[in-house]
Specification:
single chain, about 100 residues, mainly alpha, two-stranded antiparallel sheet, 3 helices, about 5% strand, flat
Length: about 100
C-alpha cells in the first residue's frame, strides 16, 4: 500500500493537523517506510509462538475469594461528605 501526498493531506485534515504543503511529500515517504517495515514483520513465521504481554512471564497473584469486612454501609459511608439511602451522593456532572 503506497501513500501519496494527497492521502497524507486527507488524513491530516481528518485528524485536524495543520501541515504545510511542502512537508506532505516528506511525510508520505516516512509513512511508506513505516508501512514497509510493518510488511517485513508480517513475513516472520510466528506459528506456535504464544502472544506476550510483557518480556518476562509473571503470573498474576491469586487469592481466595472470601467475604471481608464489607457490608456495613453505615461504617463505609461514615466519612462521606454526603450520603443518602446507603449510597454516596455526588453532584450532577452532566450538562
Amino acid at each position: 500500500m503506497a501513500i501519496d501526498a494527497a492521502t497524507v493531506r486527507k488524513v491530516a485534515r481528518l485528524a485536524r493537523i495543520a501541515e504545510p504543503e511542502e512537508k506532505l511529500e516528506t511525510l508520505a515517504r516516512e509513512l511508506n517506510g513505516i508501512l514497509d517495515w510493518i510488511e517485513q514483520l508480517s513475513e516472520v513465521d510466528t506459528t506456535g509462538v504464544e502472544p506476550m504481554t510483557t518480556a518476562i512471564h509473571t503470573p498474576l497473584p491469586m487469592r481466595e475469594d472470601v467475604v471481608t469486612e464489607g457490608g456495613d454501609p453505615d461504617r463505609v459511608l461514615s466519612n462521606a461528605p454526603k450520603a443518602a439511602h446507603h449510597f454516596f451522593v455526588a453532584p450532577k456532572v452532566i450538562e
